[in-house]
Amino acid sequence: MIDSTDHSSFRSFVDSRSRRTGGFCACLVHHGGRAISTGGFLAIWIALIFTAAQAAETTLTIGYLELDKDPRYKQERMDARFQGQPWGRPFVGAQVALKEARFVGSAIGVRFQLERVTGRDAVELASQVERLAEQGVHLFLLDVPADVLSQLADRFSGRDVLLFNLSVLDNSLRQTGCQANLLHIVPSQSMLVDALTQYLITQKWRRVLVLQGPRPQDKVLAGAFQRAQKRFGLKVVDVRPFKLGRDPRQRSRNNIALLTSGEDYDVVFVADSDGEFARAVPYQIQKPRPVVGSAGLVPDWWHWAWERHGAPQLNKRFYKKAKRWMTGYDWAAWMAVKIIVEAVQRAKTTDFRTLADFIRSKDIVLDGFKGYRLNFRPWNNQLRQPLLVTTTNWVVERAPLEGFLHQTNNLDTLGFDDRESKCKM
Prior knowledge:
The protein has three domains: 2-56, no CATH class; 58-187 and 302-385, 3-Layer(aba) Sandwich (Rossmann fold); 191-297, 3-Layer(aba) Sandwich (Rossmann fold).
C-alpha cells in the first residue's frame, strides 16, 4: 500500500520552529521531571491538531493490477530499450503522480493511496478486484496484456468498477470489443499510425514499402497502416513478410537488403510489434530512404526528449524515482492517477458514480503536459491526446499536424472518429 500523505517534512518544520530562540521557545516549564519549552508544547499541540485532521480525512484507494510474470517485461527486453516499447513496469509513473497529489489531497481533505496487486492470470486478478471492491475500491489501473484486459472488462461489465487501460494498444478494444467501464489512457494503434502518416504526407513521402512480421499483432499493425494510407492518400508499393533470424534458407525474408530491393519507394514502414527485427532495419535497406513505424521514425505518446509544457520537469521527477527515462507506458500510469485526482478535486466528492460520470464528461479538463486539453471520446472511452513523432533522442513533430482539421476537435483526426466507430457500449 502506498500513501500520498507524508508528514515527516511537516514535523521537521515544527521541530525547527520550536528550537528557535526568543518567543515561545525562550520559556521553559517543568513537566514530569523534564524541562519543556512552551514552544515544545506548541509543537505538541499542533501535532495533535494535525493528527486529528488526518483522522478526519477521506481515504481514496486506487487499485493497481499486474500479471505476476508478464512476458512483456522480460529483463532482456527491458535491457534492449526498443523504440515505442516499455522500458520497465509503469507502476513508477503512478507513484510519481501520487506524490504530486499530496498538496491537492491535503487541501481538499482526501488521502490518495495505491494498492498494488498481482496475479498469475485473469482469474486471480478478478478475485483481487472482487476483494478490493468489497472494501470500497472502485477505481483500478490495469497494466495487463490484451487478453487479460478483455476478460476483466467483460467480467466487471455493468458493475460499479472503472478500469483504466495503461498498456494495451489493440484497436479491437476501442471497436467491437469496447466496454462502458473500460477507459483507454494509451492511444490505439490506429491513432499512432495516423500521427505518423500525417507526417509522411507533410514530407511528401507518399510511396511506401511495408515490411510485415509473422505475429498476429504485426498483421494488425500493418492493417492499421493500410487504413491510414487510404485515409490520407499514401500509396503502398508492396507488402513483404519478414522473419527474425539468420537461416540462409530464409534469406528472402531475413536479409534486409534483399527485402528492400526492387520496387522504388520514398520510405519503408516496418510493422514489428515486438521491435527486435525493426531495430536492425535503419541503414541496412537497399536504397537511401528513411525507415518508419516500429523503428527509425516512431510515433509515440510520450518521450524523454519532449521539452515543452512542463515535460522536462516531469521527466526529471520520474528519472529520479525510476533511474531510467519515462516512456509512454509510464506516462499512462501517471496520467491515470492525475485524472482521478483532478476528478475528485473538481467534482468535490469521492462518490464513485459521480466521479465516473465526471471523468467521462466533456467538462473535465486534463493537462497531460502535451499542450492540449485532454478528455475522453464519448463513443469509445479513448483519451483524446496529441501524439509525438520521435527518433531515439528527439521529438521531430507533434500530431495532429498543421492542416489536418476536424469539424469538432482536431485531435479526432487521430484514430477512429465517431463516424467510424463500431463500439456499442
